[in-house]
Amino acid sequence: MADDYRGQIGRLIRDSRQHRGWTQSQLADALGTSQSAIHRIEHGQQNLSLEMIARIGESLDKQIVSLAPQGPVHLRVSGGQQLSGSIEVRSSKNASVALLCASLLNKGKTTLRGIARIEEVNRIIEVLESIGIGTRWLGEGRDLEITPPERLDLDSMDVEAARRTRSVIMFLGPLLHREVRFKLPYAGGCNLGTRTVDPHMSALRPFGLELKATGGYYHAEVDRSTSPVRPIVLIERGDTVTENALMAAARNDGVTVIRNASSNYMVQDLCFFLRRLGVRIDGIGSTTLTVHGIPDIDVDVDYAPSEDPIEAMSLLAAAIVTGSEVTVRRAPIEFLEIELALLEEMGLDYDRSGEYVAANGETRLVDLTVRPSTLRAPHDKIHPMPFPGLNIDNLPFFALIAATANGQTMIHDWVYENRAIYLTELTKLGGNVTLLDPHRVLVEGPTRWSGTEIICPPALRPAVVVLLAMMAAKGTSVLRNVYVINRGYEDLAARLSVLGARIEAFRDI
């Protein structure tokens, strides 16, 4: 029995090492032991202490064994701390997810540099691996190599992982070129109200895709004789809808015009990636995209998605709400200009560096230094608009910022049916937030924040807003079950702690 357990643990360690792209010698160096010892461990020929298993797991960034069922992760925040220093914006979560889906278009090897190591990305990787696609982390685990098989095994799809992310809907565009019949589980993700697939169907039907929803799955059939005969006009200028249409058009043999397209940051990153695959796309950054598709894509491609403007806004909000001087480096300025113009109107004191280019060779970056400021409410309501307007995902941070300003601010979240409701959680921390209807809240500041315990809202951005408010609140706060934050942010609590925040992750015993 002991030999069997040692063998099972050894195989888990071997698989985790190979998944990270390490040799036995590299793992041995990290642990301060010999390659022969690692060989014995992986072959179940050596006893292991719990301490050694924990050290191996930490080195490989992988939990090897669990001694008991794991409960949710919570955060304990000791608030009222001023932040200082500088922090880099990491790569875009939404672009990383789109590029993972787009790798399905390529028969060659795809290498994505510096992609976000977040739960949403992990779920998509799990789905890709379950259908036969090889993935391995390179170097220090920041770059991902993706190798497709000759044929996908869609019947073996990890349904549980697929249901935990809405992004699986973006498999439709690539898969319609690979399979005549397939099925996808209903998409999950944040609880933001009803999100139908109708806009996706309208965009993909010209490529011959028809869907029937039964038994918890979308059942797809593709008529390969069908191809767009006129421009595709999207009935919703959505990011994922545009991405699905782009991926369908990329391998369509002909020219596809997509109108009312999103020109948001993740869509532009996808366009730049598709160009690396050999697909010509005209009109990037506009609402009309012309895609010159190629029916067969088989290239080895290397691409680095740009930095995340929503994370940049999160870090700016953290500095503002705590009254701190912080430099946010590598901020994608093209996708923050409206936000910064509004913050200037509210009285924010900040500097920006000269522009430089991201690793994708396209996106413009700056460094932003925010200083403590006395803010005032804006003259008009704050509402989002499609790019180049104020980003829909940045709107919740303005509810938090408005709570620090003098005066009343109306926040109008017209996109989602119930996201504005979650912003009323700020009242538990001392905020004056009145829900006017499911789309509008009235925020009055300034606020004297006070600590409390809150169950994490089930929507990503409002959850981060609550966490940032806790950082400004006097006393100790607890934010329970933060999985939704880990879906969209990589090590956010730890990175904020480097700036001086006091945040501790824990589980219930």
TrEMBL record:
It is found in: Cytoplasm. Pathway: Cell wall biogenesis; peptidoglycan biosynthesis. It comes from the Bacteria. GO terms for molecular function: DNA binding; UDP-N-acetylglucosamine 1-carboxyvinyltransferase activity. Residues 13-67 form the HTH cro/C1-type domain. Transmembrane segments: none annotated. PANTHER family: UDP-N-ACETYLGLUCOSAMINE 1-CARBOXYVINYLTRANSFERASE. Cell wall formation. Adds enolpyruvyl to UDP-N-acetylglucosamine. This is UDP-N-acetylglucosamine 1-carboxyvinyltransferase. The lineage of its organism: Bacteria, Bacillati, Actinomycetota, Actinomycetes, Jiangellales.
